[in-house]
Amino acid sequence: MPSAKTTSKKSKGLTYAEAGVDIDAGDAVVDLIKPALRRTHTQRVMGRHGAFAGMFRLDYNETLFKRNYRDPVLVACTDGVGTKVKLAADRGILDTVGIDCVAMNVNDLIVQGAEPLFFLDYLGLSRVDPPETASIIEGVAKGCEIAGCALIGGECAEMPDIYEPGDFDIAGFAVGVVELSRAVDPARVEDGDMLIGLTSSGIHSNGYSLVRRIIDKAGLDLDRVYPETGDDRPLIEVLLEPTRIYARPIVKLLSSYKVKKVVSGMAHITGGGLPGNLDRALHDRVDAVVDLDSWEVPPLFKFLQEQGGVDTDEMYRVFNMGVGYVLIVRPTFADAVISKLKKYGESPFLMGRITRGKGTVKF
Q1: Which site among 56, 266, 355, 362 is 20 to 30 Å from 69 CA-CA?
Q2: Which among 179, 209, 242 is the end of a domain?
Q3: Structural domain includes residue 9
């Protein structure tokens, strides 16, 4: 075994850094992101920064924690940001895709009626540049703050043989909890229930392979302002607008009904659009009838459709078209739910109803 004196000498042989992996840069990132992680922690987070694994305490101590579960069910999911990261990497805009990563996970999690508890991220990249890498992870921490969950760990993998210089990918893993009796079950959806839509913040994180193809086909200038998008920012900023996180308002809404199960179903509108996601909230004896005139499709989607010559049906299959989340609620409570969601900062609207059917989405 080499002595400490021997190992302290400068090596003359091949090093890990020369192979493309900088351990010191990785350690620097851990130090840089510490404040961002701490901002997401509550008393339920245990262990120290930089440990091999994160620890999170389920809140059974009533004197310490504000919420207790009699029959808790853990809910978990994982997702990434897709090729939206390619646009971000190419333009060096790194502080928003972390928010997208959190959103794609927690927005799925809350569909089950769960409260997000904690989050872990995985970042694979060609080279660890401490400030740039920290900027990505700080975006993850910001997303966790918005969602009300703790960022308790993650992995940063430097793999120059896998990623081209400047390229990276990010994925996340979210865990939440729901009281078994309060878990959302599609079997509860009934004929007559109402559909309530929540507006998206833009494209969110699906369909970017098509977006990038439209950009190339139409020769769009990412640094130019296109008034047709309905936005006064350069196109690249419009396209990289972070995915809206619905966790806090949905958790507040569900917790405001302690006994009555007012919400019978929910759907996060991701890849597949409304027809490919709303049907996942249905059973095979009902249909969701969507009124396309109930909301104004944001100008950005119309701009992309015109620039790419994309069929309308394809647009609705690929993009959220301005609707990022849908709730299915009992008809007598629809107005009350809309009122609550507005109070929580959302822009809800009635967008259709449930009828007898075969588990499909109709327009």
Answers
A1: 266
A2: 179
A3: no
**CA distances (Å), origin 142, targets 101, 134, 316, 317, 342:** 11, 12, 30, 30, 23
- Are residues 116 and 191 both part of a single domain? no
Q: Mean pLDDT check: name the lowest of 28-32, 225-229, 289-293.
A: 28-32
What would the pLDDT profile of 49-102 be if each residue is shown by its tens digit?
556 666 666 765 545 445 567 888 889 999 999 999 999 999 999 999 999 999
Name the token pair of 199. Answer: 């507006």
- Would 338 be classed as within a structural domain? yes
**CB environment 56-68: b (16+ within 10 A), e (fewer):** beebeeeeeeeee
Residue with tokens 């190992």: 7
Could you tell me whether strands 115-125 and 150-158 are parallel, antiparallel, or unpaired per DSSP bridges? parallel
Kind of pairing, strands 194-199 and 323-329? antiparallel
Q: Which residues pair with 120 in a beta bridge?
A: 153, 173
The distance of Cα 36 from the centroid of its chain, to the nearest Å, equals 18
In the three-class reduction of DSSP (H, G, I as helix; E, B as strand; rest coil), residue 92 is classed as coil
CATH number of the domain that 341 lies in? 3.90.650.10
Pairing state between β 263-268 and 194-199 = unpaired
* Alpha-carbon torsion, ordered 142, 148, 151, 152, to 10 deg: 160
d(CA 103, CA 122): 15
Q: Which strands, in side-by-side order, build the sheet including 168-179?
A: 72-80, 168-179, 115-125, 150-158
Domains identified in the chain, total number: 2
Could you tell me how many residues make up the chain?
363
Q: What is the pTM of this model?
A: 0.87
Number of C-beta neighbours around residue 333 at 10 A: 16
